[in-house]
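Inputs:
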Amino acid sequence: RKEVEQDPGPFNVPEGATVAFNCTYSNSASQSFFWYRQDCRKEPKLLMSVYSSGNEDGRFTAQLNRASQYISLLIRDSKLSDSATYLCVVKTGGGNKLTFGTGTQLKVEL
Amino acid sequence: NAGVMQNPRHLVRRRGQEARLRCSPMKGHSHVYWYRQLPEEGLKFMVYLQKENIIDESGMPKERFSAEFPKEGPSILRIQQVVRGDSAAYFCASSLDRLPNYGYTFGSGTRLTVV
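Outputs:
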């Protein structure tokens, strides 16, 4: 079983739609959680951290369920510029390494 | 304040040659991380270094790969006798603290192509 699992997609949605991505992680000792965005052939960029209480940043809402080891990202009012691959990322234990999922591809269409 | 700088952006090497990838961390950062992204795969941790020390190299292949972060100058990821399977994007990140709870900022990467 992979440490971080995501549905690869692609998710093709019309502009203005709401779309949700899910991610599961296998290590219950994981401590920190993030969503990154990666555009084609570019570096991953931090979108937002994910907190147990849930957190929101504009059109983006992230949720964490530690009991189910499940992380989600909700994007409201999708824009064409949201088209990218969204990476679920976990930091486990006292180390410094991040474990990346393989990403979920989003395509927002007119 | 410049971000993490990596060079070269693109590197082409023939099989058997050496590849040297450079990473200059953000100003004031003394912790550097290297990740590799193979085609159609997620990023995989390779090595974590602090100035003059390798802290965690659990993701480094056992042979041909080495990394350093000298007291002066950039961190270097060195791949000896490259093979086609080494073709990938190599990303570097840096942090100020030893155990950051925030996500890293990555450099723009070096795309290595082995022909």
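Remarks. Chain A has a mean pLDDT of 93. Chain A is about 0% helix and 55% strand.
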